[in-house]
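Q: Convert this sequence to structure tokens.
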Amino acid sequence: MTSCGVLARRGFAKFALAVGCMALASCTPPEGKDFYQGKTVHVVVGYEPGGGYDSFARIVALHLSKHIPGNPTVVVENMPGASSMTATTYINSVAAQDGTMVAATGLAPLLQPLVDPKMQTIDPRKLAWLPSSGQGLTLIVLSAKTGIKSVADMQANEVKLAGSGALGQNALFAHVINATLHTKIRLIHGFTGSAGELLAIERGEVQGHPGLMWSSLKTMRPEWVRDKTVNILLQYGGNHPASDLPDVPYARDLITDPNDKLLFDTGVASLQIVRPFFMGQGVPADRLEIMRKAFMDTYNDPEFLADAKKLQIEINPEDGAAVQAFIDKTYGVAPEVIEKLRQLYAAQEG
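A:
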């Protein structure tokens, strides 16, 4: 056979292979960027409408579609319950694992499975974490009518603060603060979300709040800040204290015992990933990457940033891989620290 014949046969083989690949591709369901065209992405918020988490999820949803290839419809739904663990369980165990179901929750899914044996069917390390909008600087605030003005006052006097549920994240934060700063916080439960908790303060049903985000206070009750209706006693979470709260002590700086500091850091670790979004553990890797990029692009979108500024929410995004690494690190803490946190958590149930 001539060399020309060999080359011709090789060329035909390559052509046949290419045709076969195209035919195979035509039989394969569209994946990756083509998947979302014509679809609806559901953002499931773990709280009642009107609160800080709900408001933020809605402005994210407003801008998210244009950053997802195919520009799917994005809708927000509310599934309140168990400090957002109801929504977490739904996304993890019931919802479609195709990349169209996104959870917008509080901080409970990050830490509660670590401290609550009943929640260990959910492993945060296996969830498909999306980029975080930043850290959550959190406050203890008390009505100015109480006359409680300092951490020392909380160490000397019992204070009754609002809690959405005995097993919620703010309850755990309060117990960790009691254990490390020797305060006398007593939680009063039964309020629905931050909106209900703030209303309870206004009605005098409780004296204050143990875990109100600084951005939420400025958004939901700006007059409290302006008129000094509340005393801001302590700030915690985030990477550093707020520049606009120079006279409010930063909790971590008040803790001197190294073991207490480690307990505190782990107990409030979820505040490093504020307003988390995630999908179920079965979502295909290519769709996870698409959604991670879409969220990061949203957080850098000037129109989104303008809307976030209206809510006085500071955006310092962390990509999804960094969120995943932080969760892995938190769950790798020393067993004795985890045991102490579980004891504090168990005390809440009693």
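The chain has 15 helices and ten strands.
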